[in-house]
Design a protein that fits this description.
Helix 3 links the parallel strand 4 and strand 5. The protein has an eight-stranded mixed sheet with strand order 1-2-14-3-4-5-6-7. A six-stranded mixed sheet has the order 8-9-10-11-12-13, with helices on one face. The protein has 323 residues and is an alpha/beta fold. It has six helices and 14 strands.
């Protein structure tokens, strides 16, 4: 049975700009809250209630079927953030990361995913290298402090400098410091595109977080099958997919799945969780448009997606369970 939805929660959620959604199409059954003993939010009464504050929208979705014994079940709560990323503004980007990490922690997330090159901004110019840092530089040191303060794991993008090499890197930082990194191997446009600015990595690293095997595929790495295939072969159960190309939620919500079709293909091929987010896009006048963050199950079901008609930064929160 599904637990009763406490309508008194709506006022509290509205104050924080939370969008409560229902995970349609997944197996039915009682769902627990994000932590054992929390109120159940996966209820028809909670479906399709857009609650916004200052153009910021969160999505809280319970995604997995019930299991009867909590002691033999592992779970992880993952938040994925679509946020604005400004070039030449490392300090501002770090403030934005800190603010959204706090919101993710308030929703009891164990891990929060940010878009590609969140810290330094993505633009295809060698000027980008001027803002690059090493893994042990000041930005990741600050991310580590944020992770420790909120007791959460942060997956965040940067331009990494390593000697005379520059990489599009996603760094996994936990409360105890850096867990690991993934360097983007498939560069969009090759040597005449991203290859003019960054060097190609050769990573398919797997990170054990809360008992789940997690890998990273950065943006163009999902277009071609190699990286996701390697991650699957290495034992990945969840792929984190940060982007920096302005995906809009409407593209993900396309019922024909003709837009961003490669994403659906990667999930079909590998049958694992795909949690993604993109930098919030702008229109020609510089105004923020709806930002995309979404979660797809191994069965190719769209479990959560930020609303397509609400401009601005947004976040989804998904709980994943396994025995």
């Amino acid at each position: 049975m599904t637990g009763a939805f406490d309508t008194s929660l709506l006022a509290r959620f509205a104050r924080h700009g939370i969008y409560i959604g229902r995970s349609h199409g997944e197996p039915q059954g009682a769902s627990r809250g994000f932590r054992s003993g929390k109120r159940n939010l996966d209820s028809p009464a909670a479906s399709a209630l857009p609650l916004t504050v200052s153009g910021i929208v969160l999505a809280a979705v319970l995604s997995c079927p019930c299991t009867t014994a909590a002691d033999d079940t592992k779970s992880i709560v993952i938040a994925a953030v679509s946020c604005e990323i400004r070039i030449r503004d490392t300090a501002g980007n770090l403030k934005r990361i800190e603010a959204w990490t706090k919101r993710a922690a308030e929703q009891q997330a164990d891990l929060v995913l940010f878009p590609e090159c969140t810290i330094h901004g993505w633009w295809q110019s060698r000027e980008n290298r001027k803002f690059s840092e090493t893994i042990d530089g000041p930005s990741i040191a600050r991310i580590a402090k944020i992770a420790r303060r909120h007791q959460i794991t942060i997956a965040v993008g940067m331009t990494e400098r390593d000697g005379d090499k520059f990489y599009l890197t996603h760094v996994i930082v936990g409360p105890n410091g850096v867990i690991g990194r993934h360097r983007k191997s498939s560069l969009s446009g090759g040597k005449t595109g991203e290859g003019r600015v960054w060097d190609a990595g050769n990573d398919a690293n797997i990170f054990d977080i809360h008992g789940f095997k997690i890998g990273v595929a950065i943006c163009f790495e999902s277009v071609h099958p190699a990286t996701c295939r390697k991650l699957k072969a290495n034992g990945a159960e969840i792929i984190l997919a940060p982007y920096a190309n302005g995906t809009r939620p409407a593209e993900i919500l396309d019922p024909a799945r003709k837009q961003r079709s490669w994403m659906w293909q990667r999930v079909k091929e590998n049958q694992l969780w795909y949690i993604a987010c993109d930098a919030t896009p702008h229109d020609k006048r510089g105004k923020l448009q709806p930002g995309a963050a979404y979660a797809v199950s191994p069965a190719q079901r769209l479990i959560a997606c930020t609303p397509k008609d609400t401009p601005g930064e947004a976040m989804i929160v998904v709980r994943i369970e396994k025995k």
